[in-house]
Amino acid sequence: MKILPVSFYRRPDVLQIARELLGKVLVTNWNGEYTSGRIVETEAYAGELDMASHAYRGITPRTTVMFGDGGVAYVYLCYGIHQMFNIVTNMKGTAHAILIRAVEPMEGVEIMLERTGKKVLDHALTRGPGNVGKAFGFHTSQCGLSLQSKELFIADDGLILDQKLIVTSPRIGVHYAGDHALLDYRFYIKGNPYVSGKKKTV
After folding, report:
1. Is 35 a residue whose pLDDT tops 90?
2. Does the pLDDT value for residue 198 go beyond 80?
3. Which of the seven top EC classes does this enzyme belong to (predicted)?
4. Mind listing the domains of the chain with CATH numbers?
5. Per-position DSSP letters for 91-158, written without gaps between them
6. Measured between alpha carbons, how far is 192 from 170 in angstroms, rounded to an integer?
């Protein structure tokens, strides 16, 4: 696997990056507990211009990391329970970020099961951002960690994803964002059982 360079994240088009993250491999290695999985669902957030983004109201203690250079983790606590893993993109001053919503497990499944309290592997293990955060061992203390570190990185293992399988849709759970809730800023791999949200028959 080849670790994605920092230049991959420090580009201006957050939608393009969110799309290109599909099929890439997320790796965490906290205290020797190695886990990996293929990213199958992402959501883009376009900073201060995006009413669904945490950065919409500007710099706060929580969002400071989003306004830095891209290529680091933004981990926040949702509902006091879920550790949500996001990737900061673009350059300093532009608070773009991408939420990793679903991952297909590859390595370290036993570790993921232990972290989540599950007994057997099923598609719910890493379906949805809360489950991704738990299974991959994310915590807000990791906010700001470089994606070039030994503990956290995203890699390209050579998979060539059929572009016809990439689907776009509005983001999930951002109804408060008005018209911005309707933007097609969510990307996922069609037919992958780990993708979150209500399943539709085609």
Report:
1. yes
2. no
3. hydrolase
4. 2-189 (3.10.300.10)
5. STT--EEEEEEEEEEEE-HHHHHHHHT-SS--GGGGBSHHHHHHHTT--GGGTT-BTBSSSEEEEE-S
6. 18
Q: What is the CA radius of gyration of the chain?
A: 16
- Angle made by CA atoms 4, 130, 157, in degrees to the nearest 5: 25
pLDDT digits (tens, 9 = 90+) for 130-168: 999 999 999 999 999 999 999 999 999 999 999 999 999
Structure tokens at 187: 């990307």
Separation of alpha carbons 128 and 27, rounded Å: 17
Q: What is the pTM of this model?
A: 0.95
CA dihedral 52→174→197→118, nearest 10 degrees, is: 80
Q: What pLDDT is stored for residue 199 in this prediction?
A: 55
Token pair for 70: 């891209």
pLDDT interval class at 81 (50, 70, 90): confident
* The 3-state secondary structure of 14-69, one letter per residue: HHHHHHHCCCCEEEEEECCEEEEEEEEEEEEEEHHHCCCCHHHHCCCCCCHHHHCC
